[in-house]
# Entry
Amino acid sequence: MVDSSATIPAPLGGAERPARRASKARFWVCIAFLMLAALVGTAVGGGIHFYRAVWHIPSLVIDESHLDLGSGKPNEVMRGSLRLKNTGRAPLEFTAQGSCGCTSLKPGSGTVMPGGELEVAVALTLASHTNSERAVQISIKSNDPRRSEVQCSAKARCPGPCRLNPAFINFGQLTRAQLASAGQLLRISPNEGDVPLDAGSLVVETRSRAFRIEASSEDKFAFRVSLAGDLASGDYFDDLDVKVSPSALPARVPVHVQVVEPVSIVPTTIFLRRQSAGDQYEPIDLLLIDRRRDAPIDEVSLIGSAGTFQLEQTGKAAPHVLRLRLIARAGGDIPSVLNLKCNGLDDPISIRVAAAK
# Structure
């Protein structure tokens, strides 16, 4: 007989299933924890990086970046200041530099703590003559990532003892034939509110032999500025010294003239560059400028070099400006100078060939 009360053994492995499930559960819990830790670490690290990159930075603010230091006397030092503020959350490091030696900046470098401010003293030395103005640029460089460099400025004036009209005399371009007839009037008048000038005490002087000064016969407060008639081609500059009395400090009036040939060509030097394909160099455009008014040039030809160079007239850019095109063939002889013959001119016009590439 079979004993019905006997215990039937459990199937193989049946008792292990709950333990195995618990082990798997612990495994996935660990994986989830590690993933969450990684996400949290990334978020925290990114947050720290974001904080440092966006919030933990200096911020430069300059309330007034353009200074007008007013008026002074010759060689006087005009003073002002730039106020630098740091509205950021990290120390601000800066350097300050002026555009010329007439400017002094103190301190030239330093550190401004968050929420702090610092004054940079600006000293600008005026010129040694009146009727002048000085304007300088001041560069402020810092570790502010949004404004690594800020441009400021400062200016000051040294007014003259009188009014000068014009303040700058420019004769422009003149040929030697035009020098004798060229002239401009320089008029002198008192500043507003000043006492009348003494015409007999006025003095106008030049240090250059290119310019001549003489009192006007029509206006006792005016001087005629003319030019020497034997000037060679070139640029001539000078500053006229104007004094209201022989012992007074001078006011200065810049003056300039450029003496040019009656007929000239632009450019005066050409560079030959070989074309990427073919046996020619790249064409070169020229302008022939004729400043004469009696017999304008309308015919231009090359003297020699006919086998290598070809000259074409392509029209007029202005009534007295002729357009030319120079074409050079590769393989021929390249002279160092090309000469052009123009109708109405005894001497040829020369063009220098500086290089052949």
Notes: The radius of gyration is 41 Å. The helical segments are 17-55, 176-179. The chain has three domains: 60-158, 162-260, 263-356. The first helix runs from residue 17 to 55.
